Amino acid sequence: MKWQRARQSQNVEDRRGSGWRGDGTGGWRGGGRLPVRGGGLGLGGLIAIVLIGWVMGISPMEMLGLLNQQQGDVPAQSAPERPSERGAANDPAALPADPQRDFVASILGDTEDVWGAVFQQNGQSYPAPRLVLFSGAVQSACGQATSAVGPFYCPGDRQVYIDRDFFEEMQARLGGGGDFAEAYVIAHEVGHHIQTITGVSARVNAARRRGENVEGDGGLLVRQELQADCYAGVWAHHAQARHQWLEPGDIEEALSTATAIGDDALQRQARGVVVPDSFSHGTSEQRVRWFSRGFEGGQPNDCDTFAAQSL
User: Fold this and answer.
1) How far apart are CA 184 and CA 242, in angstroms?
2) Residues 6 or more apart from 26 whose CB is under 8 A from it?
3) How far is Cα 153 from Cα 13, in angstroms, rounded to an integer?
4) Among 51, 73, 94, 262, which is most buried by a count of CB atoms within 10 Å?
5) Mean pLDDT of the chain
6) Which three-class secondary structure state does DSSP give residue 138?
7) Which residues of the chain have pLDDT under 70?
8) SS percent in the chain: helix, strand, coil, step 5
């Protein structure tokens, strides 16, 4: 993937090695978004939830969601601004060379350009999210979490959080990986940002608060995640048309990654059995299908998973 052809975003904050601790929301393996939670769990508590969730066949995001129902949603709290977030520090040209950061900034920058154009066609402006690079753990407006949660989007501060070490684990343990696969992960999280600003996430959270069962095969959580996959495909379609940057094997990387992180594949790997009632992201086949649908057509309207009779 010739990602260097893209414009680098200035909306990237690098907290790696900053000493910040904590993190906040559901993540890539347990759900790429989560309603804002009050207080925040300690790191030990969060790790315990991740482990208990896998043993019980419940995604970490759903475990946290149950706590969220008990605690109630609270207004979003912005993380404190650090001096390095301001001025020239946000300008990629003013920072020392860092291929990892440059890659993330390039992918985010292209999502800004693609979605900015899509929104403009509909007479709207696109409020781009920020992306926070962290290592180990991070604090967000949604609470605290470690890198074990994986990449996630926090609607409370409208930021994407990514620990680059996850990509190495994804390749080593989950059978997915590669630069375009990593771009797909970032674009998926940006898809949750699209859902936040268009009101989709609010409707799903409202259903949860009403006591509706939103999990399971075909449930609202699965539909929300599959729509984010489709949005990632829409971005990839337009990005390829803009840059012609894909190389042989890139699409296969993304599809292999989508296959590796399906609920059925992850549950089979973790527990040896598949429990459809606890699905939160969709099966491997479904994730591949919806990413492919977005990539082939490039039309956001094709991503209405909530109206689909069959996923």
Assistant:
1) 16
2) 32, 33, 34, 59, 60, 61, 64, 65, 149, 152
3) 14
4) 262
5) 79
6) strand
7) 18-96, 173-176
8) 55, 10, 40
